[in-house]
Amino acid sequence: MTHRENNFDFIRFLAASLVLFSHSYALTGMGGGEPLVQLTHGQYTFGGLSVRVFFVISGFLVCQSWIRRPQAVPFVVARSLRILPGFAAALAFAVLIGLCVGRLPPDAFLADPQTWRYFWHNLTMRTEFFLPGVFDDNIYPRAVNGSIWSLRYEVHAYLVVLGLGLLTLLRPRLPGILAWAAAVASIWLVPGLWGMAGPNDLPVIHLFICFAMAALVALNPGVIRHLGWPALALAVTVPFAAGAWLEYHVDALLCAFFLWFAHRPVPVVRSWARFGDFSYGIFIYAFPLQQLIAMSHVTDRQPLLMALLAFPLTLVLAALSWHLVEAPCQAVKGRISNALQRPVDGLRARLRAARQRGRQRSPELPGRPAR
Questions:
Q1: What is the pTM of this model?
Q2: Dihedral of the CA atoms 234, 238, 242, 246 (nearest 10)?
Q3: CA–CA separation, 271 and 6 (whole Å)
Q4: Do 150 and 51 contact (CB within 8 A), yes or no?
Q5: What residues in the chain have per-residue pLDDT under 50?
Q6: Contact, 50 vs 207, CB < 8 A?
Q7: Backbone angles phi, psi at 110, to 5 degrees
Q8: How far is the C-alpha of 204 from the C-alpha of 23, rounded, in Å?
Q9: What span, in angstroms and rounded, lies between the C-alpha atoms of 293 and 287?
């Protein structure tokens, strides 16, 4: 199924919008009032579940990307151009906000090492949330962009796909199942492989489990048409799950439902991104814009007003990000991948030719002399 024959664009847009909606409660001091928080007695937020949905989509599409072209250079180029250019622009935007509204004078702000750590550390996936003197008096103080915490884990998940692919373990049925079972076990055994500081970070663990479940479906795409009934069964039985098993139950439900729904023929939804895929821009621009709005205190304890003001402004920035940064980078990724892959292919061809010449020149073992 091609990019235009699924509903992933709509699902991403919905998930990013729900992250904005969820943060509207936290950033106005009404975090406990979010509808899903109240419904689940504080166990879930729309934002938290939406990030899991992002990992479901990534697990499926990124694994499919490797299957379509199992070469390291194009894979790394495609993933880098999807994440980094738009992220760099969003980080620069946050620095510009700090320059304009922060407490420090412009020269002191630009001279502060924390300003440049914010930009470079985040761009190299070492998450930093703070800029000096920015948003200190907000209800949710100091955090410039709280949404970006999950990006470093997504990049580590990409690296796991790359590693399994290079080991030729991303194959359908049993080999793929065993490979991802080992990868999931490594979340607890070797958490550093996934970018985790330790094996007890449950929110991050469940992101990776969502990713791995979806990657398994990508290796065995024939199961997608059968996921509707399991998704319904999982939804009906959620109230009966308890303890740690509830989280795994929710992971399986999100994976089954959204991969099933992504492949349903829904005409309006299927053409959702005809003007551009704005989901990533919404995700990386919403939080700093919401904090900027919160500085006025007009939206204090009014989360719906915050969402109403923030969404159209964020959508404008997301559209600009797509058309000026993300889409142009996507347009050249094929040329860059091919240009970087050609020397690799040439080197491989020369090595194969050298090995073949070596075999041809090897002297035959002398036969036993006749008596």
A1: 0.93
A2: 60
A3: 9
A4: yes
A5: 1-3, 369-371
A6: no
A7: -70, -25
A8: 19
A9: 10
Q: List Cα–Cα distances, 113 to 15, 102, 109, 121, in angstroms.
A: 34, 15, 9, 11
Q: Tens digits of per-residue pLDDT, 56-69?
A: 999 999 999 999 99
Closest by CA to 151, choosing from 105, 90, 107, is: 90
Q: Cβ of 144: how many Cβ atoms within 10 Å?
A: 23
CB-based contact 273:9 (threshold 8 Å): yes
- Give the pLDDT score at 199: 83
Token representation of residue 11: 């699902």
- Give me the amino acid identity at 21: F
Q: Residue 247: what pLDDT?
A: 94
- Within 8 A by CB and 6+ apart from 301, the residues are 28, 29, 30
3-state secondary structure of 169: coil
CB 155 within 8 A of CB 83: yes
pLDDT of 353 reads 86
**Burial class of 268 by CB neighbour count within 10 A (0 to 12, 13 to 18, 19+):** exposed
Q: Is 316 in contact with 93 (CB distance < 8 Å)? A: no
How far, in whole angstroms, is CA 162 from its chain's centroid? 15
C-alpha to C-alpha distance for 118 and 141, rounded to whole angstroms = 16
Q: Are 183 and 212 in contact (CB under 8 A)?
A: yes
In this structure, are residues 279 and 7 in contact, taking their beta carbons and an 8 Å threshold?
Answer: no
Residue 80, judged by CB atoms within 10 A of its CB (0-12, 13-18, 19+), counts as middle
DSSP for 320-360, please give it.
Answer: HHIIIIIHHHHHHHHHHHHHHHHHHHHHHHHHHHHHHHHHH
Alpha-helix residue ranges (DSSP H) falling in the chain = 8-26, 35-39, 46-68, 72-101, 106-111, 113-123, 151-166, 173-189, 202-219, 228-237, 244-262, 267-270, 279-294, 303-321, 327-361
Q: What are 223-248's pLDDT values in tens digits?
A: 999 999 999 999 999 989 888 899 99
Cβ neighbours of residue 242 closer than 8 Å, sequence gap 6 or more = none
